[in-house]
């Protein structure tokens, strides 16, 4: 399982993650668009045990996801780069790591797209797409 190093914009927080099959999950939900300032976020689902902070500390805030369950957002206290999110609806041991902050991620393929119903009309579909999330 490959290890990837992540870092925030200012360099005050760093982490490593292990990802079985590196690839981006593009999320087109409105929350991700607001958080990223772009048209989607880039993510990977990993076991929480495969993410390790190596420098600095993350701050956290919560919001309610479309499921009605809390989403815990972990970010650098200085520059506010979001490193990962824990969507509690997925259970206690799964997190979404922001792949765009990982070294080497520019070579990751697009593995999946979620919240396709919110994709901007001019964006092409790049991978298998779900209107919201894949069925459990």
Any chance you could write out the topology, listing elements then pairs?
Layout (H helix, E strand, L loop, with lengths): L2 E5 L6 E5 L5 E4 L2 H7 L4 E7 L3 E5 L2 E7 L5 E7 L5 E6 L6 E5 L11 E5 L22
- Oligomeric state of the chains in view: single chain
Order of helices and strands: EEEHEEEEEEE
Integer-rounded radius of gyration: 14 Å
Overall number of strands: 10
What strand order characterises the main sheet?
6-7-8-9-4-3-10
Taking pLDDT < 50 over at least 5 consecutive residues as the criterion, the unreliable ranges are none
> Treating each run of at least 4 consecutive H or I residues as one helix, how many helices?
1
Distance between the termini: 24 Å
Q: Which structural class do the helices and strands define? A: mainly beta
Basic shape: globular
- Percent of residues in β-strands: 35-45%
Q: What is the percent of helical residues? A: under 10%
Mean pLDDT score, rounded? 96
Q: How does the major sheet shape up? A: 7 strands, mixed
């Amino acid at each position: 399982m490959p290890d990837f190093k992540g870092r925030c914009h200012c360099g005050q927080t760093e982490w490593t993650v292990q990802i079985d099959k590196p690839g981006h999950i593009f999320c087109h939900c409105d929350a991700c668009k607001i958080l990223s300032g772009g048209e989607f976020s880039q993510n990977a689902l990993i076991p929480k045990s495969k993410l390790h902070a190596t420098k600095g500390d993350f701050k956290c805030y919560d919001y309610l996801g479309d499921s009605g369950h809390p989403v815990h957002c972990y970010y650098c206290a200085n520059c506010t780069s979001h490193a990962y999110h824990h969507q509690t609806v997925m259970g206690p041991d799964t997190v979404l790591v922001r792949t765009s902050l990982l070294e080497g991620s520019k070579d990751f393929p697009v593995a999946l797209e979620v919240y396709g119903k919110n994709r901007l009309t001019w964006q092409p579909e790049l991978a298998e797409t779900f209107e919201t999330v894949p069925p459990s």
